[in-house]
Amino acid sequence: MNEIPILEIKNLKTYFYQKEETIKAVDDISMKAFSGKITAIVGESGSGKSVTTLSILRLIQGNGKIIGGEILLKGEDMLKMTEKQLCSIRGKDISMIFQDPSGALNPVIKIKKQLIEAIKLHNKQISKKECIEKCIKMIKAVGLREPEKIMESYPFELSGGMCQRAMVAMALLSTPKVLIADEPTTSLDLTIQAVILDEIYKLKGKNMAIILITHDLSVVAQMADDVYIMHNGHIVESGTVFDVFDVPKHEYTKSLLRSIS
Amino acid sequence: MKKVRFIIKRIAQVIPMLFIVSVLAFTLSNLSAGDAAAITLRGDGVEVTKENLEAVRSEFGLDKSLPEQYLNWLKKVVKFDFGTSFQTKKPVINEIARRFPTTLKLAITATFFSLLLAIPIALISARYQNRLPDHIFRLLCTALATMPDYWVGLMLMFVFAVLLKIFPVISGSEMKNIFLPAITLSLAPMATYVRLLRNNLVEIKGFEYMKAARAKGLSETMALIKHGLKNAMVPCLTMLGTNFGILVSGSFAIETIFSWNGIGKFAVESIKLKDFPVIQCYIMVVAFTYIMLNLALDIIYVFIDPKIQLD
Amino acid sequence: MKSENKRLFKNIIEVLMKDKLAVAGLVIVLVFLILGAFASQIAPHDPIEVVLSRKLQLPSLEFPMGTDNMGRCIFSRILYGTRVSLYNALVVLAAILAVGIPLGITAGYVGGWVDNLIMRLSDIASTFPSSLLALAIVGIAGPSMKNIMIVFIFLWWAPFARIIRGTVIKIKEKDFVTAAVSCGSSRFKIIINHIFLNSVSPIIVLSTLRVAAIIMHLAAFSFIGLGTQPPQADWGVMLNDGRQFITTNPILMLWPGLAIMFSVFGLNMLGEGFNSALLPISGEGNSQKGVKYE
Fold this sequence. Notes:
The complex is a heterotrimer of chains A (261), B (311) and C (294).
Chain A: E1 7-17, E2 22-33, E3 38-42, H1 49-56, E4 64-73, E5 76-77, H2 83-89, E6 94-97, H3 101-104, H4 111-120, H5 128-141, H6 147-151, H7 160-172, E7 178-182, H8 190-203, E8 209-214, H9 217-223, E9 226-231, E10 234-240, H10 241-246, H11 251-260
Parallel strand pairs in A: 3-8, 3-9, 6-7, 7-8
Antiparallel strand pairs in A: 1-2, 1-4, 4-5, 9-10
Helix pairs in contact in A: 4-5, 4-7, 5-7, 7-8
Chain B: H1 2-43, H2 50-59, H3 66-78, H4 92-127, H5 132-146, H6 149-163, H7 179-205, H8 208-216, H9 220-233, H10 236-248, H11 252-257, H12 263-272, H13 276-304
Helix pairs in contact in B: 1-2, 1-13, 4-5, 4-7, 4-9, 4-10, 4-13, 5-7, 6-7, 7-9, 7-10, 8-9, 10-13, 12-13
Chain C: H1 2-18, H2 20-37, H3 39-42, H4 74-110, H5 112-127, H6 130-141, H7 145-156, H8 158-172, H9 175-182, H10 187-223, H11 235-243, H12 251-278
Helix pairs in contact in C: 1-12, 2-4, 2-12, 4-5, 4-7, 4-8, 4-10, 4-12, 5-8, 6-7, 7-10, 8-10, 10-11, 10-12, 11-12
């Protein structure tokens, strides 16, 4: 592990302030993600894994706040960037796939417009024709048939699996260096889950760093290179997938592993 | 099936309203016919005696039973025959039709202004939710929503026409002077749109697709404009329709203040002059337009928004 | 029951006092009520005495708000106008309550076709454009404030009936009612008792907001000359009188305008304050919109 990580998190703390109590959703975690590798963050719901991903993109809203640490993208600290700089990173260098594909696509805008937006935001010069060609190519690449028809549809006209592929296509349009997939298959049918995971696995070969958030250890076992186990806002155990699965050190990891085998 | 039942129910609701309106208008026309009989006699130079009056009344069909008279009246109304105005001696329907575009112009401009102001204000309020701009606009909108429009109109007139002399005191229905009356009429609806739009936008802000839009690289403001606004506007539609319906009936006070010769001002003047045929026609035309507009909107809304709850 | 009422009342006052705008509203409303009630004691002059030699004077010690085009003391006229405007609005409110509450109780308690009929009537009343009906009635019966007031009574009882009906239906099936009935009390009596406790909050909120709306609407009709007829003067009439002097003596129209604005604003603030103090979660009192998808 002496390569340079594309994304490194150091001592990140994200707290939520409610009336009288402070919820330490993410409390002092550090992790690294490498190009061409899948890094999994595992934990049950409420363990802080989603907050971690939102913190990476600095999309924490409301009464939540990142109160300390560093998020280094190619050695540059994202926590010190202006909003404008961040906007040029979001969707360009770091893309995200959300848990609920039908919720993450705007219900009143056609797929085509949402895809084109993803390109145009980071490439203003590109012509409309080129844009559409790129979209169609990408839709085919994520395994959807009849791309022209998909482009002209509204999200509610597509199935959950189709929406998620469209989401993946949208995330990949700008060829990001880091892809964050937050429980990308949780809300899908079992048969489609495997297919979507397969699409994500293929991206590894394109030298992309993938951060996979999941609560499903069997998914991790199949796909991940490095694993971080999160519990109550802390990382309780980390290492390569073989280290963690074969010789778990922490009690919590052991109990997680017992529950699947 | 639910939709069909809702529509039938809504139409069933409209019928008694139209009936009430028509009875009111009929009563007015009946009053006017009584007066008209005397006027006709005087006009012919005949002495107004009981016998003479009876003769003219039977000529007008006033000696028939009330339901019969009502049906006769209704037959005429369907043919847009509302009689002649006492003031202008011209067919009433022409008089109303001539003034209607003036009111319509004002209604459209006012609606346009109210949206033009409401959308950016709602966006700013939602963008800076619970921060200073939001608080300021909320206070402003509460004030505007509670201020009587005729008072706002007078104050605007005083400031812009009397003090600054930007506009003339008498607008005289000219398009170049539409600004003051239109702004006056736009403010209260604007305040209600802002409140609704802002709350919708704030709710939408927390939706998954807004997070996704931000993750794509859209700034908070652009995400709200491009992904929030359209969805937030849908629930405003009924309100917009109802307000437009009210505006189209002609605002009595505002048209009077700005000497804007629309149907509202005409109706008020007609009442003072006891010009019953005009009032009767105004009521029928405006009520019909208003009721049908609302009915149409409710029906359209059922089809636009699949989330609408019908039970 | 009595101590419960007392506690409820105390709570309302406490919450209301924390809301600065509501307190301001309350003060404004109280000031207007006192001015209206003691108009004849406070007023320095006869409000309708015409003395042309002193017309259009600026405010002075003798005439705190100046005099109008007929030399009448504006301050005294405003005081009497306050009395007329508030009195009319409260009469309308009382009548609306007197119509709406019994109809609501009947609809909720009897149910069946009676309920259906009353609710359909309330649908019509709440969607009927009020200005149109007002115009028709004034057209038939001649311009007068009484006619205008009748129109608002005819149309605005509906939301009150709806609130009461909802409460009655909610309470009717409650266990404690059945329990009390089995102990020998009259079901109707129990329900009446509980209606008070359960619907007093939304009724107070809605009443406050409605009084504001009534004042505004009545003044509007007086303003266009279809309401109160001279020589009697309410705020609307005075505003219309003052309007003719907008270029020469704008101060004439300032006073009645401010009176309307402040009273309406005060009542609205108080109503909003009641709303957040009494109905913290649901916004029942705010259902101004007539059309309901039932």
